Each structure stands twice: as C-alpha cells, then as structure tokens.
Amino acid sequence: MGGIEIRELEAFLVLAEELHFGRAGERLYVSQSRVSQLLRALEGRIGAPLVERTSRRVRLTPLGESFVGSLRPAYDGLRATLDEARAAARAEVGGVLRIGFQGTVDDYLAQAMALFEEECPGCALELTEIPLSDPFGPVRRQEVDCAVVLLPVREEDLVLGPVFSRQPQTLAVSVRHPFAARESVSAEELADCRLIGVGAGGAPGPAPAYWRLAQAPDHTPELRPIPVGPLVNTLQEGLSLTAADRGAMLLCRSTADYHGRRSSIAFVPVDGLPPSELGLIWHRSHVSPTALAFARAVKGVTPVR
Predict the structure, then answer these.
(1) Distance separating alpha carbons of residues 243 and 261, to the nearest angstrom
(2) pLDDT tens digit sequence for 92-143
(3) Buried b (16+ CB within 10 A) or exposed e, 38-54
(4) What is the pTM of this model?
(5) Class at the top of the CATH hierarchy for domain 169-274
(6) Which H/E stretch holds residue 201?
(7) Which residues pair with 280 in a beta bridge?
(8) Cis peptide leading into 152, omega within 30 of 0?
C-alpha cells in the first residue's frame, strides 16, 4: 500500500463525514492540527489534494469525492475482518490459564488478572504458588502455563516476557536482631549478618546457581563476604527461620509489605543493592494463547521495563 497508514485513511474518512477539522479531531480523540497532519501525509502519498479548506468551509475535491467512494467499502471490510479476528482470538483464549507465582500476588498482578478476565471472560484463572527452590520447573513440567518469577532468567528453553515490579530490596530480620530498630541498612552491612539462601531442594528442576546467588548474594558490592545462613526451599520456611533469628532474608518490597504484620519479624530497607524485579516466563516449545493473552494484560497495566 505504499506505506499508507490506517490512521491516515481513518482521519480522511471522518473528515469527509464531518467536513470540519475540529469535529473530526474530537471523534478521533486527537487535536485539529493532528488531523491536518494526517491529511497532508495522505495527500502527499497520493500526489494531489483531497480536501479544499477555506476560512468558511471544508469540502472534498473531485478526487476526494471519488476516493472516499472507493475507500469506504474497503475500509469497512478491513474493520470487519479485524473484528472477526479479535472474536476468533477471544474464542481461542478459553479454558483455564494456570499461573505460577513466587511470594505474593501484589497489586500489579491483581490488576493484570482483572484485565485478563475482562478481555478473556471465557478463561478461568488458576493460581499456584511455586517454591523458591524450583522457579522454572513447573513451567518445564507443564504444571503451569506461565509463571511470575524473580529475575534473573537466563534459561534458553524459556521465554522471558514482560519485566515489571521493579522495587527496592528489604531485609527481613528477627525483632531481636540488631538491625531490627534501624530505619535502613547498607549493602555493605550485609557482611554482618547470616543471609538465608535458596536451597537446591529435591525438585526435578532446582534453581540454578546464578539465580540463587541473585536472591542471596555471597558478597557485598565491595566484595566483603556475606556469611551463609540456612538454605530454604519455600518463602514460609525462610520467614520461619527469620523469626527464630537463624538468619536474615532479602525480600522485595511488596512481599515485605504483605508480611509486615508479623510481630516477630522486622523489615528494613537495604541501600546499595540492585532492585528486585519480576518477570513473566513461559516455555519456548509449548506456549499457549492464554499465556500470551496474559502477557498482554501484564503489559497493559504495569510499568514494564
């Protein structure tokens, strides 16, 4: 089509009906100058004026009259084809979408789920909490269609979709810990506490070493060693050991806020660490239309990186 944009055709058709740039802009939810810009672009592609505009009125040129008569049926047919495709896509995105998640379902994910249910009313959502020690296994074993996991993700067989929920890291400590009364701690001070880590567990697909080190680093930014604490397979195990003052645990802000009512644990912001981020993943070889639809919903409601 010689690079013609659908928006240019739409603007011309609306202007042909309204014969007024202001009213055309209102219908298109754009400014009057934007309508003029789209029209000039279309006329430039065609090579002749389609509209005559004076201080008193706007009217179509003879070429404009002929063009709108030919364009309208084609444009209406294109819109009908798009509507049919959208309806078919909604019908295809049915059944059940199984989402795995680590930690908690925060406001971002809740909004994404609400948008997904609005866009795909025929699809039910099933949420499954996946262990810290096996973030990628449920997707690989097709126990879930997609999963929300902590970054990083460097697995060749997995697709990393939208990345979101970028938040400062928080240190969970027992209320008896020296850090409990602090307003914040520095990343270098992590060398003064035992950090609870993620274990390999007994799952078929344990978390790789690079991922476990990202959640519980073994050194500070200035390369001071961080003492290794107990290894856990689940978030609840980590929180229980934290409450018992067996070690401290790094958590994202939303998870800390969710568990903030625990009287036995204090949550202290950490300065100097990279923020935590979440990402939506699915398997490269068996992606489902429902997972892709949910990825679009996540992009629609979150500030995605």
Answers:
(1) 12
(2) 556 889 999 987 777 788 899 999 988 888 888 999 999 888 999 999 999 9
(3) bbebbbeebeeebbeee
(4) 0.66
(5) alpha beta
(6) none
(7) 148
(8) yes
